[in-house]
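Dear colleague,

Following up on Tuesday's group meeting, I ran the structure prediction for the two-component complex that the binding team flagged. I've pasted the input sequences exactly as they went in, so you can double-check that nothing got truncated or mislabelled along the way. The structure tokens for the whole assembly follow below. Feel free to forward this to whoever is handling the docking comparison.

Inputs:
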Amino acid sequence: MNVLERIRPALGDLAARSTTSQEGMLVLEIAAQEAHDAIAKLRDACGFETCTFVTAVDRFPAEPRFEVLWQLHSVANDERVRLRARVNGADPKVPTIVDLYPGAAFSERECFDMFGVVFEGHRGLKRLLMPEGYDHFPLRKDFPHQGIEPDRLYREWDARRHQRMPDEPTVGRETLS
Amino acid sequence: MTETVTLEYARGASAASLEGDDPLHGELMELNVGPQHPATHGVLRLKVTLDGETMREIEPDVGYLHRGKEKTCETLGWRKFFVHTDRLDYVQPLMNNCGYALALEKLAGLRVPERGQILRVLLMELSRIGAHLIYLGTTGIDLGAVTMFFFCFNEREKLYDLLDAYTGHRMNNTYIRIGGVYADAEESLLGAVEAFVDQFPSKVDEFEKMLTGNRIWYDRNHGVGVLSKEDALAWSLTGPILRASGVEHDLRKAEPYSGYETYEFDVPVGTVGDCYDRYLVRVEEMRQSARICKQAVEKLKRTRGGEFLAEDRRFVLPPKSDVRHSMEELIFQFKIVTDMSLPKGEAYGAIESSKGELGFYVVSDGTSHPMRCHIRAPGLMNVQAIPLLARGRLLSDMVAVIGSLDFVMGEVDR
């Protein structure tokens, strides 16, 4: 039995919006606000015990700009499913799934760090790899790729950081509130 | 008459029962471990809140080795990123190469010839042995078994010699390409691999003699960092850590790639899910890897002279000797080197690396520059689990927990 047939009863109308990717994986196209419910159903009714990754793709300059992706894995059934939600660039927000999969916490933090996608309800959503309070989101397509440009941005930010009062909020922190 | 003194070791005792003896109990202290500390295996920083000697809260802080690999991939293009995959988990570069190659081959719809697959399996299993030797050596030295470090690195040195003879490098080999491997293995190499693989299980026995029944090793690992089946799954843990918790899941069996379904090997599974189980699982995996290597050598002898690289001039470079004589091949080489593009779409390729599920999620928009290459690093998930395993235990158990989670910061920070 293929994955779609197995999860169709639990998912209802969500299953109608499914596609298959090049490598043959089931991809569910969902709206950002229904991500939490859909993933909860997949976990509780369909036995997807583990979240492999949460990440995003920047389609700049297209709008909606970001694709947020969740990939779940059912170890018992050897099945995988990917969910995709499109969110706009002005205010990228998706619900968190940390309450369902505690292991998604670092993935969500990384996605926020690199793309600026905010995971609503994630307590302790802060930068993972870049320094705290950094001004930019490096994996966005409008962040420079190579040359001296990224280095210049870092140096400027670093110089400003030392001038700031320690309590003054920075851009990265503003996005959190 | 001599008086007998019985020493009561706190073997397996919970932290709660030790608190009564701890004069500092009740006074919280913030301790900063790392980023430069030998026991953190790289540049990992841990913010530990200590209550006496008991760890109340641990917060891992990663990113000190962040080099922007995913961004680099978008800049460099598909082919040139292979060298960068080596620098992810630098104790097993060939494994990373293969994971990345699998993702690209899925996207391109390319099939690897049989001999290419066998060579990949051989290289990957040798890498797995090498990576587990690093685990055993470094965890051993952290927990006081200094000899283990020299034992393991002795064996690893032999492995390096084999890789050097075949790939021309000891580390950062970059030998796996889209469509197969760079070059065929010579007959003399197979003999050397066979000699190594034949003597290796007896060396593993020697390691086990040093550690498995060792009182100190047992006490420091047994019952420390116990991880339940459910937690292991919910916390996205994979590989030996998941198996030590009693879940029989191995991508080599569950989603076979590179022809793993044709090899005979067992998947060791733990029962308790503590540091000691994780040690036993890895030790057994080394034996199984040696078994697979032996079968791979046999297969290589049978497929002598076969194709090891797919013949697809959209993605695979023509042999250099042909480029010098054929205009057509020269054009192919020029096209591949300057702007090799993959078909539009997305693919996820995952392998069972020594740390767990190493996945590459690649998105192509049909041009020569990748839209996105996300690296699903098992090490990041392992670091994430440190608080779960170490909370409520003594500070000295941290070393055992970090050792048994076995991560490499190059992969965690990318």
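The helical segments of chain A are 3-11, 35-46, 105-115, 149-163, 171-176.

Cheers,
M.
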